[in-house]
Amino acid sequence: MKPLRHAPFGALRYALLGATMFMSHGADARLTRIEVEKTAPDKPGYETISGRFHGEVDPKDPHNTIITDIAAAPRNARGMVEYSATFAITRPLAGSDVLFYDVPNRGNILRDPDPMGFVRVVSGWQGDLPEDVGLQTARVPVAAGLTGPVLARFVDMPAGVTSLPITGSIGRPTPRPLPVSLDTTKARLMRLKGDSAPLETIKPADWAFADCRTVPFPGTPDPARICLRGGFDPKFAYTLAYEGKDPLVLGLGFAATRDLVAFLRHAEKDDAGHPNPAGKIAYAIASGTSQSGNYVRTFVHLGFNADEAGRRVFDGVNPNIAARQVPLNLRFGVPGGAAGLFEPGSEGTLWWTRYNDKARGRGVSSFLDRCHASDTCPKVVETFGSAEFWGLRMSPGLIGTDGRADLPLPPEVRRYYFPSTTHGGSWSGGFPTGGDPTPPGCALPGNAVSSMESLRAAQMMLVAWVREGKAPLPSRYPTLKGGDLVEANAKAMGWPDIVGAPVPDGKLNSLLNYDFGPGYKTYDTSGVIGVQPPRVLGALPQRVPRVNADGNETSGVPAVALQVPLGSHLGWNVKAGGYEAGGGCGFAGGFIPFARTKAERLAHHDPRLSLEERYHDHAGFVAAVRKAVARQQAAGWLLEADAQKLIAQAEASKVLID
């Protein structure tokens, strides 16, 4: 075999070696082998290295015993539990001392296209994803022989369809565990007309674990599908509860991230002598968006920010548009869920400060308890927008489960709220049309207010905080004390009376108090769920941001597009049809445009000023954008490249052009 060459910032080639060529260096858990499968040029001055890494953990080590079902996982000759995952590293050829880890979302790489001069790293962590080209995935062992309750939900299926796959997650469905038995008397299929309606049990004789796509009911037996006599009705949601077997040890995904980043930060080579492909790293920062933001919160909360040697893994973290814990470290967890009915993730710790959850009787806790105990807490910049209040239950993270008072932030946390934005914000910038395309299944056009520019500024503040000790700008977010958080109805919010437009009443995703059984470690969103579906013990209070006379929110860090609005930009939308039509449309935001002229406004009895009354003409609109851009830059919330982009978008827009 040819000797391996180590070029610190040139192309690296690692031979793919078998396990027999690696020798153990003691019983410590760590990344043992890194396989580079491809090295390719990226943006000018960058290259991307991708492949797979392998690791092992000691199931008896206190760093790992929190992993659900780790004790039942198969072990190698050294008594260790093995895993592997994919990775990709985009690095500047000139090098960087900052590693910026972008947590994949359902295997997808959600990353700013500008590497910003850092070593950008992604890797797989979600062990229930099917492996596919372009996805970051993980391989974790099966805890063979273990069983437990499993739940799957089915909504908005085509009318009359008779057979459906048993899957979990959204966006990228993942197979649910196979049932112990195909006997429907040992399972339960239910339906309900709305999330607040009672569950109606379907007779065991009227459904089957089967495939009816080509064979009439009861179809061909199939443990991965269900079949319903007479077909499914899209006006209902269906819930299946059954006894599953052989769970994946999904919590190993946290260890995979921990061990990879610890290796890239501190190791010179793997067990075979292959060099660390990241170069010399002094600082590590993680950012996750939505599901992966929940992952970041839970990673810190469960203590994984301490590596096997007790060192800090990430110096800073940015959970973005994240409102829950990720339900990963569970037997039969569904990490790809999204705060739907009966889904775990909102039951435990949801706050950065220590708070006594008296409303649910769950005691005092915070996300930072474990890292405070081990002195491994990262600096935290939390960012989120309006849709997280409406669709993802953000409220308790700010005001607790009783909703009585603002929760203070600890000194290592900054919080920035991006008002009147949809989930993740629009990437269009908001000026070309005023609204984004209508989200699937929703009634209103999409909300085009972009949060990317503010997010990028916040992330650069986090880097400076970690690297230089430069404190970020003060937190900006809605509070009860400031009168910014109110009940989710038109009257309390100050919602304008727009003739023919929907109102916010009834659009909030309820925060239900669930009982998943004694095996569920509620505090940590870990353990074994024993009751499916969970018992509903009641609903908890939530609050949302108030709005001004335009229907736009007033607190936090407003984007330029919100400072120069083209309509009412909402964190909620309306479900157009199917299950719960007329209610909230997931976590999609909506848009209600202003009238173009005063005459049009008066004709439609619209209380909001028209575009013409606000800006006079296209030149006036562009001038208003320029002023807003200058304000945003002066306040430290807009980078120069983004400032020029927004001005160019305004100039190229069709606003007030005949």
> What is the total tally of β strands?
33
What's the tally of helices?
12
Describe the global form: globular
Contiguous runs where pLDDT drops below 50 for at least 5 residues: 1-28
* Structural class category: alpha+beta
End-to-end Cα distance: 70 Å
Q: What percent strand?
A: 15-25%
Main pleated-sheet profile: 10 strands, mixed
Helical percent range?
A: 10-25%
Mean pLDDT reading: 93
Question: What gyration radius follows from the Cα positions, in whole Å?
Answer: 26 Å
Structure commentary:
With 658 residues, this protein is an alpha+beta fold. Among the domains are: 19-141 and 249-391, no CATH class; 147-245, no CATH class. The strands form 11 sheets. Strands 1, 2, 3, 4, 5, 6, 18, 19, 22 and 23 form a 10-stranded mixed β-sheet that branches. Strands 7-17-11-12 form a 4-stranded antiparallel β-sheet, with no helix packed on it. A hairpin with a 7-residue loop joins strand 20 and strand 21 (364-365). Helix 11 packs antiparallel against helix 12. 50% of the residues are buried.
